[in-house]
Amino acid sequence: GNSVTQMEGPVTLSEEAFLTINCTYTATGYPSLFWYVQYPGEGLQLLLKATKADDKGSNKGFEATYRKETTSFHLEKGSVQVSDSAVYFCALGETSYDKVIFGPGTSLSVIP
Amino acid sequence: DTGVSQDPRHKITKRGQNVTFRCDPISEHNRLYWYRQTLGQGPEFLTYFQNEAQLEKSRLLSDRFSAERPKGSFSTLEIQRTEQGDSAMYLCASSLSSLAGSEQYFGPGTRLTVT
Predict the structure, then answer these.
(1) How far apart are CA A82 and CA B38, in angstroms?
(2) Which chain A residue lies closest to B42 (C-alpha atoms)?
């Protein structure tokens, strides 16, 4: 079945450091890919998405590119801030009715 | 747009009791999803409605679980004879069906603790 694997955390970075969170997926068909973020005490929010191969999703300085050849959707940000501290979930949307399959999440802490 | 709301936000119950959670989706959204999230894990799909029709149920949804969406608006998730393993955050999400990649909007969740 469809699945998502992402790098284990927790990840701790200093402010202004470069961030990469790796994500790979297994899927039949052509799923949509998402990054969701969960800030402390808040609900899940969509951070960015890509719906087809080679699409790049971007939001709030975060980027991820849908790589079909490597089945990957790595999340990157050039300069993280303390306010980026959260749990990040890579996910794929099944094509039939957009059921979302989530990865286990990666906790990010950014220290001043 | 008031977003997706869930009630209650927290529920503590004793093993063997029944509990019911409510989800109010964004008003124009025709799709509604229930997920369960345990500590340190990503949300796991439980079930899905398109309008009032329940179109898929996960294997995770044992026969102690039942979900309804009368009139295609709010939804309820009932757990009968709760077990300690049911302790989790129950998340509701809604979306508007369209082309691929419809964004799901999540509610704040109901945290269930079974003692």
Answers:
(1) 26
(2) A104
Q: Give the tens place of pLDDT for each residue, A65-112.
A: 999 999 999 999 999 999 999 999 999 987 665 688 999 999 999 999
Angle, vertex CA B27, rays to CA A93 and CA A38, nearest 5: 45
Chain B partners within 8 Å of A98 (Cβ): 31, 95, 97, 100-102, 104
> Measured on CA atoms in the order B62, B63, B69, B71, is the torsion positive or negative?
positive
DSSP 8-state secondary structure symbol assigned to residue A67: B
- Please report the pLDDT score of residue B71 as a whole number: 86
CB B3 within 8 A of CB A44: no
Which of A97, A101, A106, A107 to probe by mutation at the B interface, max B CB count within 10 Å?
A97
Per the DSSP assignment, residues forming a β-bridge with A76 are A20, A63
